[in-house]
């Protein structure tokens, strides 16, 4: 199972929100490129970037920082936040981003998702962010009446390569992922599910690993890495396909706590 470090970008900084609340943000670094390089050195096989400014405004804002991160890394990068038209998606992929994550448009313009999946096969993921089972949009500032499971099934039909499921009420809380919902979603759809929100420990990852046969193929981890509740190298040793066996022993310690 992939263990994917997350970097959330707000005003060019690496931050973490609590339950998606922009007013409860904590700055972890002024240098996101340096943070990205640290996660790569510790064995990450993917990096997850979220343009929080873009999610809020409806168009990517941190493109310069994203481009610098992509340029600095050898591992692939996936990015979400503010991708609500073809131009923005194409612009991001042209920067060297491997996978674009669509969110709000999955509800507001599902036909666009289908078009983009056809134009960029294998590079379009859909992020489903849910609050009490209902899908939130526009940077988690609005909540729809559509259930996360219904939207996931629609996005399978649209051609999405994978679903990133985030339980907003778990995000940034270190309380563990929503295992029942992840199990339900993974068994209901035919494409991979990547878990996000609340992952704080190796036991959390092992609980997710138990769902791998059902289709949960990865876990995005944020706050726990920055607070040192979870060590990335140790996590990869436990559940991941990363390059941990090739790492020097001194690369197991993060500097972000």
Model description:
With 257 residues, this protein is α/β, with parallel strands linked by helices. The chain has a single domain, classed as Aldolase class I (TIM Barrel, Alpha-Beta Barrel). It has helices at residues 32-41, 52-57, 63-72, 86-94, 104-108, 110-119, 148-158, 179-188, 202-209, 223-226, 232-239; strands spanning 2-10, 13-18, 21-29, 47-51, 77-80, 99-102, 124-131, 134-137, 142-147, 163-167, 193-196, 216-221. Strands 1-4-5-6-7-10-11-12 form an 8-stranded parallel β-barrel, surrounded by 8 helices. Helix 6 (110-119) crosses helix 7 and helix 9 runs parallel beside helix 11 (232-239). The two termini are 25 Å apart. Mean pLDDT is 88; it is low at 242-257.
Mean pLDDT: 88
Radius of gyration: 17 Å
Q: Kindly identify the CATH topology.
A: TIM Barrel
Query: What is the molecular shape?
Result: globular
Quaternary structure annotation: single chain
**Second-tier CATH architecture:** Alpha-Beta Barrel
CATH superfamily: Aldolase class I
- The strand count comes to 12
Percent helix: 25-40%
* Model regions low in confidence, pLDDT < 50 over at least 5 residues: 242-257
Task: Quickly count the helices.
Answer: 11
Strand order of the largest sheet: 1-4-5-6-7-10-11-12
| Overall number of structural domains | 1
- Regarding CATH, which class? Alpha Beta
* Distance N to C terminus: 25 Å
- Structural class of the secondary elements? alpha/beta
The biggest beta sheet is recorded as: 8 strands, parallel, barrel
Order of helices and strands: EEEHEHHEHEHHEEEHEHEHEHH
């Amino acid at each position: 199972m992939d263990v994917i470090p997350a970097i959330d970008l707000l005003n060019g900084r690496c931050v973490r929100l609590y339950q998606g609340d922009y007013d409860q943000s904590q700055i972890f670094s002024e240098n996101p490129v340096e943070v990205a390089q640290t996660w790569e050195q510790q064995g990450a096989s993917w990096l997850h970037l979220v343009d929080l400014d873009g999610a809020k405004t409806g168009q990517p804002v941190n493109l310069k920082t994203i481009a610098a991160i992509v340029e600095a890394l050898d591992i692939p990068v996936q990015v979400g936040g503010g991708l609500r038209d073809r131009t923005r998606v194409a612009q991001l992929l042209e920067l060297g981003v491997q996978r674009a994550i669509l969110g709000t448009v999955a509800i507001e313009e599902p036909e666009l998702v289908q078009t983009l999946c056809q134009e960029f096969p294998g590079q379009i993921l859909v992020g489903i962010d849910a609050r009490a089972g209902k899908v939130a949009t526009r940077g988690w500032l609005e909540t729809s009446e559509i259930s996360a499971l219904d939207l996931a099934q629609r996005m399978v039909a649209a051609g999405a390569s994978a679903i990133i499921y985030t339980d907003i009420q778990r995000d940034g809380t270190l309380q563990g992922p929503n295992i029942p919902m992840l199990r339900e979603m993974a068994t209901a759809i035919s494409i991979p599910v990547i878990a996000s929100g609340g992952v704080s420990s190796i036991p959390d990852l092992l609980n997710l690993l138990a769902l791998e046969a059902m289709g949960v193929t990865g876990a995005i981890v944020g706050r726990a890495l920055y607070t040192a509740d979870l060590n990335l190298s140790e996590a990869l040793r436990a559940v991941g396909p990363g390059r941990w066996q090739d790492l020097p022993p001194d690369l197991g310690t993060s500097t972000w706590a």
